[in-house]
Specification:
The chain has 112 residues and is of the alpha+beta class. Helices cover 21% and strands 22% of the residues. It has a five-stranded antiparallel sheet with strand order 1-2-3-5-4, with helices on one face. The longest helix has 16 residues. The protein is globular, with a radius of gyration of 14 Å. The structure holds adenosine monophosphate. Adenosine monophosphate binds next to loops.
Length: 112
């Protein structure tokens, strides 16, 4: 999608510090980490947010969760949080579906 930051990162037009990549998704480290480990996992195909997931595109979401399980095991992360913000009030700043994976510190609940 034109003018989408994460589409440009997925295409390699904007550099990122990659943690994992395959045909369907990309994991890369967040530029402003909120925990000792903080990376994002995105589908390469543009989806605006969880609010745009439907029966036609949801397979990539299952794939992303399998990638998160595999990557966190490989990284030795026993405990972590997966977050997806939907809409401005919830804190979404980039309108391309992404899952934050945060680890390496105590997490509070409820989130702020
Ligand atoms: P959200 O605010 O939930 O939409 O998450 C967007 C995340 O993308 C934020 O945590 C930003 O720090 C991160 N971010 C923005 N630009 C970049 C970039 N060029 N490379 C890596 N992470 C980025």
């Amino acid at each position: 999608m034109d003018n989408c930051l994460f589409c440009k990162i997925a295409a390699g037009d904007i550099p990122s510090k990659k943690a994992y990549e395959d045909d369907l998704c990309l994991a890369f480290y967040d530029i402003a980490p909120q925990a000792p480990v903080h990376f994002l996992v995105i589908p390469k195909a543009h989806i605006g947010s969880v609010a745009e997931v439907d029966d036609d595109n949801s397979a990539v979401v299952a794939h992303i969760f399998a990638v998160i399980a595999k990557l966190t095991k490989e990284m030795g992360l026993a405990s972590y949080r997966v977050v997806s913000n939907i809409g401005e009030q919830a804190g979404q700043s980039v309108p391309h579906l992404h899952f934050h994976v945060l680890s390496g510190r105590d997490m509070t609940w409820p989130p702020g």
